[in-house]
Every structure is written in C-alpha cells, then in structure tokens.
C-alpha cells in the first residue's frame, strides 16, 4: 500500500485548488454550495389540458421557500406521468415563479417543445425536469409548472404520482 501526502494541489498554472492544514481539514479554493432548505410534494395527479395557451397544471404543484440569502440559488425538480391519446399532439412546459406574492411570471421559456408528440395514438410517458434559478431576493419564492398543448388533449398525471422538490443551494 502507498500513501501520498501533500499540503496543496495546484493546477497547471500554479493556482491552489485544494489545501490542507495537516489536521485532516481540507479547504477547496473554489465555491462549494451546500443544500440549505428543502421542500417537496407528491400527490395523485389527473388533469386533462386542452388549452393552447399556458396554464398552471394544478395549484397543488406549487412549491415555496424563503431564501436564507439573496445570493441563494434554487433547484426545482419535477416528475410526472402524462398520456397523449391523440396523434399529432404534444405539450410545452414552462416554469413560472412568484416572488413575495407579486404575481407569477414565466422564467424558463419552453423547457419542452412538443413533448410526447408522435404520429400514432396512445403515448404514455414520464416527464422529468430540473430547473435552476437565482431569484436574488429574501422574499418567499414559489415555483409552479405551466403547460399548453399543440392540439387535442394531454392528460397530466393519468392518475399517477406527481413528485416535485425545491432545494435552496447556499452561496
């Protein structure tokens, strides 16, 4: 067995990447985020959407946290089944955010474009998405998925579980 002991690890340019004080404490020279607060939800979802304009899937999909610092970053993750019964039909998904009760606004643009779209009928899939946001506030922040369909109907949930998690990453 070999042992390698060093005080610092440097990159090619001589910049210290990691240093140690000899007591087992390692100090990285780059920012390392820690997960602060976490909230999550899961419930049975069954919503038929026919709207060709963006609408909230369900108010139960909302998750909120109040940041510890204005420099905090949030990661919003969601997963849900969906069913596209008609051919030539797909959906678009955007993330909306509300800060301090000021009203929801579209912050992501289209995260999916014609998801589930195919030329045959009966497409049952699982959507898994993650969105990172830096709202630069200390007021409560709420996130919610909004969707629209290209045509016909898309069933979100199909009586399956909707899961979402919102995590604060500390600066």
Number of strands: 13
Beta-strand residue fraction = over 45%
Q: What is the general shape? A: elongated
Largest sheet: 6 strands, antiparallel
Tell me the structural class: mainly beta
Distance between the termini: 39 Å
How many DSSP H or I helices? 0
Mean pLDDT score:
90
At the fold tier of CATH, the topology name of the largest domain is Jelly Rolls
CATH architecture verdict of the largest domain: Sandwich
- By CATH's scheme, which homologous superfamily of the largest domain applies? icosahedral virus
Number of domains: 2
CATH class of the largest domain: Mainly Beta
Output the radius of gyration.
22 Å
Describe the overall structure.
The structure is a single chain. The protein has strands at residues 8-10, 16-20, 26-28, 34-49, 55-56, 63-65, 73-84, 91-99, 104-106, 112-115, 123-133, 141-149, 154-170. By secondary structure, the protein is mainly beta. The chain has two domains: 1-30, no CATH class; 32-170, icosahedral virus (Jelly Rolls). The strands form three sheets. Strands 5, 6, 8, 9, 10 and 12 form a six-stranded antiparallel beta sheet that branches. Strands 4-13-7-11 form a four-stranded antiparallel beta sheet, with no helix packed on it. Strands 1-2-3 form a three-stranded antiparallel beta sheet, with no helix packed on it. A hairpin with a 4-residue loop joins strand 8 (91-99) and strand 9 (104-106). The chain is elongated and about 65 Å long. The relative contact order is 0.32.
């Amino acid at each position: 067995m070999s042992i390698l002991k060093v005080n610092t690890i440097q990159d090619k340019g001589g910049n210290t990447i990691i240093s140690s004080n000899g007591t087992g404490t390692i100090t990285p020279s780059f920012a390392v985020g820690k997960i602060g607060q976490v909230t999550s939800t899961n419930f049975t979802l069954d919503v038929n959407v026919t709207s060709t304009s963006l609408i909230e899937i369900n108010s139960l999909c909302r998750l909120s946290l109040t940041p510890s610092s204005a420099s905090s970053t949030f990661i919003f993750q969601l997963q849900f089944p969906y069913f596209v019964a008609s051919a030539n039909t797909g959906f678009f998904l955007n993330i909306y955010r509300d800060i301090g009760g000021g009203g929801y606004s579209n912050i992501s643009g289209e995260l999916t474009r014609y998801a589930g779209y195919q030329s045959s009928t009966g497409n049952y899939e699982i959507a898994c998405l993650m969105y990172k946001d830096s709202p630069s506030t200390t007021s409560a922040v709420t996130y919610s998925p909004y969707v629209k369909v290209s045509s016909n109907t898309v069933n979100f949930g199909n009586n399956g579980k909707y899961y979402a998690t919102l995590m604060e990453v500390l600066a």
